[in-house]
Design a protein that fits this description.
Phosphorylase Kinase, domain 1; Aminoglycoside 3'-phosphotransferase, Chain: A, domain 2; three-stranded antiparallel sheet; 7 helices
């Protein structure tokens, strides 16, 4: 019998370790589109960014089977006091993503000058701090073509919302990403994405997360740099 263990840090989908591989089964009304986008990104971005290898896929379920990516989870490392190194590596990885030609990944929606991950940041990255590198960028189901500020602002939002002790290290993120739009632009980008997540939660009947995202929107609106 195969060993089965549900993996931590998964929220929107069902991700588990099965027989030495990661099995990711998609949930929700957008599950097939999400799986299709992630499959396209993982397949096309190999060699450009550290991403998992797709071993098998079944879009009728939909489900992807992936190799196990080594490394420590970014949010755990932030909580352990490694914010400066983690956010520098996040910024370097974002700069690398922005250098990937748009034609590399086919079938994404949106208009813009870069590939946008859509939920970018330490919450979806694995690291080897001894080797000073990112070992994996996870969860590409929200990828699209868009504006460079989107993933940068969302990384900042994750830090400001969930990792207050790491806020002072955001300078490392901006320096490594080689971009620091003014606060008003970053703030607007954060609000847009929070509203987008809230709209999705409200569209799914009885989604218990909607109230939490309303609170997060109020909190985000009140922020000053």
């Amino acid at each position: 019998m195969l060993a089965v263990d549900r993996l931590p840090h998964g929220y929107s989908n069902f991700t588990r370790l099965v027989g030495g591989h990661v099995e990711k089964t998609y949930d929700g009304p957008l599950r097939r589109g999400n799986a299709t986008r992630e499959l396209a990104c993982l397949t096309a971005l190999t060699g450009h960014l550290p991403v998992a290898t797709v071993i098998h896929h079944d879009l009728s379920v939909p489900r992807l089977t992936l190799n196990v990516v080594p490394g420590s989870h970014g949010q755990d490392l932030l909580d352990a006091g490694h914010a400066s190194q983690v956010l520098r590596l996040v910024g370097c990885t974002l700069a690398a993503l922005h250098e990937v030609p748009l034609g590399t990944v086919r079938g994404l929606d949106g208009e813009g000058s870069v590939i946008v991950h859509g939920d970018f940041g330490p919450q979806n990255m694995l690291f080897d701090l001894e080797a000073d590198c990112v070992t994996g960028v996870l969860d590409w189901e929200s990828a699209h073509f868009g504006n460079p500020i989107e993933d940068l602002a969302w990384t900042e939002w994750i830090v400001r919302m969930h990792h207050h002790d790491a806020i002072d290290a955001l300078d490392e993120l901006f320096a490594a990403a080689a971009q620091r739009p003014v606060w008003s632009e970053r703030h607007r980008a954060m609000i847009r994405q929070v509203r987008s997540v809230l709209a999705y939660c409200e569209s799914v009947r009885m989604d218990p997360a909607a109230g939490e995202w309303r609170d997060r929107l109020r909190c985000t609106n009140a922020w000053t740099e």
